[in-house]
Design a protein that fits this description.
Layout: E1 10-11, E2 14-15, H1 26-31, H2 33-59, E3 65-69, H3 76-92, E4 96-100, H4 107-114, E5 122-127, H5 128-136, E6 148-157, E7 159-163, H6 172-181, E8 187-190, H7 196-208, E9 213-216, H8 220-229, E10 234-238, H9 239-248, E11 252-256, E12 283-290, H10 295-309, H11 312-320, E13 324-325, H12 330-351
Parallel strand pairs: 3-4, 3-5, 8-9, 8-10
Antiparallel strand pairs: 1-2, 5-12, 6-12, 6-13, 7-10, 7-11
Helix pairs in contact: 3-10, 5-12, 7-12
Protein name: MFS transporter
Organism: Achromobacter ruhlandii
Family: Belongs to the UPF0065 (bug) family.
Length: 356
């Protein structure tokens, strides 16, 4: 507040002036040459302290911004990155580059991103895989929670519990009852050991108190094919794999792993509301930055991500591609990633999951 409020103005934690006492008028204080020099010096110090941040924020971005994607082009994380990066480029009036650095289930890209220059021009699209890998691999050269800073969630991808129509169940609670009454008779397919759809099934087993045998496949397509053929009865499938077969009636959806109903399948209840309270399992992708990236740039990127991902046209296109935009704050995303690491470690340890 100014003199009328009785408090001195402050600048970056430095007092830039002080209130006069009862024996000294404001006019006298302002006319004192020595005091004017002190005040001027403090003002200059304040400006010098804040100038680099203001200048950087005003100048950024001065050239192309890179988004590192640790998976091949065409997958859900890559698709989300492109839906995000393109409008950001338009907003910033600079090119945005999606750099696919695939390999080792997302490890190659994460290692590359962790070593990238933290100058505000390198960002990383992480996924559920990066929360799971620390519990499956002891040879990682990076730490997903310590070598990066959170920027924000981008999208979630529903995991759908589907069954072959020949199975005489129509709800999650009926599936649980059937599994308990017929121990050893049910199996579920997934896109691979240690992946999101596998862990979704193991979490279901643990929380529902059942034992449905896991059968891993090399990808979603063969896993779905054997569900259609009846070789397995249950599958925890990603949304894009499940939706086409749901439309033709070749599989039946019992529930989604999202905390709320999916906009892709609004008529399908959540697993939590239909038999397993508290159950949550879904894939996701969000943006991280190398540790040391300036906080003001992180805040700017987050604010602009929220803006572009909240656009109705973008959201509609993403949902059609199998991704549901879920932008949020850096703090919320950081807490989410830490929680995912702990959650899946417990599931992996309890199920005794090992990579082959």
């Amino acid at each position: 507040m100014g003199p009328a409020g009785g408090k001195a103005p402050r600048c970056s934690g430095v007092v830039c002036g002080r209130a006069t006492d009862k024996n000294e008028t404001q006019e006298t204080a302002l006319l004192d040459p020595q005091r004017r020099r002190v005040i001027a010096g403090l003002g200059a110090a304040c400006a010098t302290t804040l100038l680099p941040t203001f200048a950087r924020a005003a100048a950024w971005p001065g050239h192309a911004v890179t988004f590192i994607v640790p998976f091949p082009a065409g997958g859900p994380v890559d698709t989300t990155a492109r839906f995000t990066a393109q409008p950001l480029g338009h907003l910033w009036s600079v090119p945005t580059v999606v750099d696919n650095r695939s390999g080792a289930g997302g490890i190659v890209g994460a290692q590359f991103a962790a070593k990238a220059e933290p100058d505000g021009y390198n960002f990383f699209f992480a996924s559920i895989h990066h929360a799971v890998l620390p519990s499956l691999r002891g040879d990682l050269t990076y730490d997903i929670t310590r070598d990066f800073v959170p920027v924000g969630m981008a999208a979630v991808f529903p995991i759908v519990l589907v069954v072959n129509p020949s199975l005489p169940v129509n709800s999650v609670s009926e599936l649980i009852a059937y599994a308990k009454a017929n121990p050893g008779k049910l199996s579920f397919s997934s896109s691979g050991t240690g992946g999101g759809t596998h862990l979704a099934g193991e979490l279901f087993n643990a929380m529902a108190g059942v034992k449905i045998q896991h059968i891993p496949y090399r990808g979603s397509a063969p896993a779905m094919q054997d569900l259609l053929g009846g070789q397995v009865q249950v599958m925890f499938a990603d949304g894009p794999s499940a939706v086409p077969h749901l439309k033709t009636g070749k599989v039946r959806a019992l529930g989604v792993g999202n905390p709320t109903r999916s906009s892709m399948l609004p008529d399908v209840p959540t697993i939590a509301e239909s038999g397993v309270p508290g159950y949550e399992a879904y894939s996701w992708s969000g943006v991280l930055a190398p540790k040391g990236t300036p906080a003001d740039i992180v805040a700017r990127v987050n604010a602009d991500m929220v803006k572009v991902l909240s656009d109705p046209a973008t959201a509609k296109a993403m949902v059609a591609a199998g991704a549901e935009p879920k932008p949020g704050s850096p703090e919320a995303f950081g807490a989410f990633v830490r929680g995912e690491v702990l959650k899946w470690r417990e599931v992996i340890d309890k199920a005794g999951i090992k990579l082959e």
